[in-house]
Design a protein that fits this description.
By secondary structure, the protein is an all-alpha fold. It is built from 7 helices and no strands. The relative contact order is 0.18.
Length: 207
């Protein structure tokens, strides 16, 4: 067994693990789309823990860099992250309501700016920009009119869609990588000399 074949098998196994991870993410995304309320609470808890862990890591870095000009700035930022993480973990429903309101306002302002900008500029992509602006405005109004009930499914839906598309991307990357590795390994195996064929050098050919 030659070395390229062993390396090819290792690469193929690694791409297979990526495809398996993508499959798990797709399953999680589909389950989240079915149970959007659970996905919303899960995303809020993950967000809170990320803030908390990031704040603790930032605090450790700030302590290590004490004596510098950025020490107190690092401490303040880390303390804010820790406090925000604790609040999000203790009150995931209220955090989801606040973030849903923020998302609705972002959709509204983004839609209005796209609509006004497309009318004022009148560029070659005016129709597409108008459609984007109208969609953002409509989505923001739908989320805002159904608030706070919309906080039970909006963030969970976005979180699940992100998992779904990330999983599909990993599956495509893993399967494509395995296919390329198998093709390259097959060509290397065809070009490699077998044990029955003698390996001849240029000096032997001259003789």
């Amino acid at each position: 067994m030659n070395e390229p074949t062993v390396e090819g098998r290792k690469l193929s196994r690694s791409f297979g693990w990526l495809a398996l991870l993508g499959t798990l993410l797709v399953i999680a995304g589909v389950i989240g789309l079915v149970y959007t309320g659970v996905a919303t609470l899960t995303s809020m808890l993950l967000f809170g823990w990320l803030l908390l862990v990031g704040g603790l890591v930032g605090l450790l870095h700030a302590i290590e860099s004490r004596g510098t000009n950025y020490f107190w700035l690092g401490v303040v930022v880390a303390a804010l992250n820790i406090a925000a993480g604790v609040v999000v973990i203790k009150h995931p429903e209220g955090t989801a309501e606040a973030l849903t309101m923020f998302a609705a306002l972002l959709f509204l302002t983004g839609g209005v700016f796209r609509l006004v900008g497309s009318v004022v500029v009148r560029g070659p992509q005016m129709g597409w920009t108008l459609l984007q602006g109208a969609f953002g405005l409509l989505l923001g109004l739908l989320v805002l009119f159904d608030w706070p009930h919309s906080s039970l499914y909006v963030l969970g839906c976005f979180f699940s869609l992100a998992l779904l598309f990330d999983g599909l991307g990993l599956i495509a990357f893993g399967l494509g990588g395995r296919r390329i590795v198998s093709m390259v390994s097959g060509r290397l195996d065809e070009s490699a000399p077998t044990s029955d064929e003698p390996i001849t050098s240029p000096e032997d050919e001259r003789k």
